């Protein structure tokens, strides 16, 4: 009992430390790789509150003035929102193209996110990559 109270106190303390440090927002990089000829990856600075999901940070980024970032998504009853288009480029079934969600954490290892944009919780300073690819 006492130790769990201590634990939640410590948790609160470290959380409020994070909140004070970043104004409640954790910064992360959002990179869009569209794999089109003559096009370079686009990098954006995004923010999410601790525990906030990726789609929220993407929505706020898209609404920001001059962000040059836009996306559309569709809802799946089982998996939540999934990306349909990013910066005007859509995945489609005919070409078997889609936007895959990749994560590069502090250890620089690139992994495929095992959840979609409405479930993924960005961590501070990591890089979230939206990669236009084929299935
Ligand atoms: C994120 O980067 C900032 C600025 O470099 C740093 O102050 C902070 O400690 C980092 N946070 C984490 C969790 O790595
Ligand atoms: C990103 O997409 C390109 C094009 O389909 C693919 O070649 C590449 O392997 C993908 N990147 C990763 C890390 O999966």
Instruction: Quote the beta fraction.
Output: 35-45%
Gross geometry: globular
Radius of gyration over alpha carbons? 17 Å
CATH architecture: Beta Complex
What are the segments in which pLDDT stays under 50 over at least 5 consecutive residues?
Answer: none
Question: Topology of this protein?
Answer:
Blueprint: H1 2-22, E1 26-33, E2 42-48, H2 54-63, E3 71-76, E4 80-86, E5 89-90, E6 97-104, E7 110-112, E8 127-134
Parallel strand pairs: 1-8
Antiparallel strand pairs: 1-2, 3-4, 4-5, 6-7, 6-8
Bound molecules: 2-acetamido-2-deoxy-beta-D-glucopyranose (2 copies).
One 2-acetamido-2-deoxy-beta-D-glucopyranose (NAG) binds near residues 35, 102, 110, 133 and 134.
Description:
- This protein has 135 residues and is α+β, with helices and mostly antiparallel strands.
- It has a single domain (25-134), classed as Ferric Hydroxamate Uptake Protein, Chain A, domain 1 (Beta Complex), CATH 2.170.130.
- The chain has helices spanning 2-22, 54-63; strands at 26-33, 42-48, 71-76, 80-86, 89-90, 97-104, 110-112, 127-134.
- It has a 5-stranded mixed sheet with strand order 2-1-8-6-7.
- Strand 4 and strand 5 (89-90) form a beta hairpin.
- The longest helix is centred in the first third of the chain and has 21 residues, at 2-22.
- The structure holds 2-acetamido-2-deoxy-beta-D-glucopyranose (2 copies).
- One 2-acetamido-2-deoxy-beta-D-glucopyranose binds next to loops.
